[in-house]
Write a structure and sequence with these properties.
By secondary structure, the protein is an alpha/beta fold. The chain has two domains: 81 residues, DNA polymerase, domain 1, CATH 1.10.150; 266 residues, Alpha-Beta Barrel (TIM Barrel). Helices cover 41% and strands 9% of the residues. A seven-stranded parallel sheet has the order 1-2-3-4-5-6-7. Helix 10 links the parallel strand 4 and strand 5. Helix 10 runs parallel beside helix 11. The protein is elongated, with a radius of gyration of 21 Å. The termini are far apart.
């Protein structure tokens, strides 16, 4: 007797998730996400018929490997490629940090296809919820970063409406396995820090957002003095909540689309920016701005020596993925391992806090200069 059919769309998405998580090229990932989208547009009965008659390859967006996955899934078998990936990715991404990962409630730095991410907002939110997050912040890029399709004021205003719609949809139909209190997608931005320390969005709009991550993306080779003044000016801005990937370094190759591969945009690595770390971290501690522990494997920012310096300075921290795809949302263990190694106290990691406490912190700028 035939095995009961599996969900081929879920199997395709799981494969894409595991490929993203294990740093495979965005080209390979796209094949599985494209196939999942193609099947989602068809009635399930049509998918089953096409699989059983081996006609899937005639459907636009379905290739040989993805068709094989669907045929096995429809037949009730765990697809062989999925089994292979599950075995290959069974080991933890990094040793240590398990207690910190268990304490995390959310992620304060993620991207969607509204800027340089690869997936829609609702898919990023649903994946974050399925990983057990209570909240996740959508932080697409700001206008000046045109290479990353940074959001103009008008596009960001529209995105706020989309986030509200996604939250309403998730409230109406929660993702299985989410926390009892539900999941909340928070509004945010990764705002560019201009050369003079100004933030690349209007005060009125920044005021409306739940979380603002401020990052340097340009003039990374600026001399230490001007770079230090630039960063401190951004930290002192009352809208800044998190200082993103503070050194801007790359420790391994990176590719278009947020993944990693041998085809890089501008070289294999990038050295860290030069700045007075003691002064910058003292400013973060003074203004209540969290130092991001960026979990992206090609960033690992800040370096361990600076992370220990930030701990000594009394800084708050945020362990974030900077995810540009759903599978990358599972990269937090990398940051947690580094945080444990460098002695970061769990109570000073802001995304271990309950949502209400997190929002009180981001809204309370009374101790910061206007």
């Amino acid at each position: 007797m035939a095995e009961p059919a599996r969900d081929p769309i879920a199997d395709l998405r799981r494969i894409a998730f595991l490929l993203e998580r294990s740093l495979e090229s965005s080209y390979r990932v796209k094949a599985f996400r494209t196939a999942a989208a193609a099947l989602a547009a068809l009635p399930p009965s049509d998918v089953a018929l096409l699989a059983r008659t081996q006609e899937l390859r005639q459907v636009k967006g379905i290739g040989e490997r993805t068709a094989t996955v669907v045929e096995e899934s429809v037949a009730g078998q765990v697809p062989g490629y999925l089994t292979e990936l599950e075995a290959r990715t069974a080991e933890p991404l990094a040793p240590g940090g398990e207690a910190l990962r268990a304490a995390l409630r959310g992620d304060l730095h993620t991207h969607s296809d509204w800027s340089d991410g690869g997936s829609p907002i609702d898919e990023m939110a649903a994946t974050a919820a399925s990983l057990g997050h209570e909240y996740t912040v959508l932080t697409d890029h700001s206008p000046r970063l045109t290479v990353a399709r940074g959001l103009t004021e008008a596009r960001l205003l529209r995105q706020l409406e989309v986030v509200a719609d996604v939250n309403a949809a998730l409230a109406a139909e929660p993702v299985p396995g989410t926390t009892a209190g539900g999941f909340q997608l928070l509004t945010g931005i990764e705002v560019d820090i201009h050369d003079d320390g100004r933030l690349d969005q209007t005060d009125q709009l920044l005021r409306r957002l739940d979380v603002v991550v401020a990052s340097v993306h340009s003039e990374l080779r600026m001399p230490s003095g001007p770079m230090t003044r630039r960063m401190i000016a951004a930290i002192a801005n009352p809208h800044t909540d998190v200082l993103g990937h503070c050194t801007g370094r790359y420790v391994m190759e990176r590719s278009f689309g947020g993944g990693l591969s041998s085809q890089t945009r501008s070289g294999k690595t990038r050295p860290p920016s030069s700045f007075d770390a003691k002064a910058v971290f003292a400013a973060c501690a003074e203004h209540g701005v969290a130092v991001e522990i960026n979990s992206r494997p090609e960033r690992l920012d800040p370096p361990r020596a600076l992370l220990r310096l930030a701990v000594e300075a009394g800084c708050l921290f945020a362990i974030d993925t900077d995810a540009h795809a759903p599978g990358q949302l599972d990269w937090q263990p990398i940051g947690c391992a580094r945080a444990q190694e460098c002695g970061v106290p769990a109570e000073r990691i802001v995304n271990t806090w309950p949502l209400d406490d997190l929002l009180i912190w981001t809204e309370d700028h009374s101790h910061r200069p206007a």
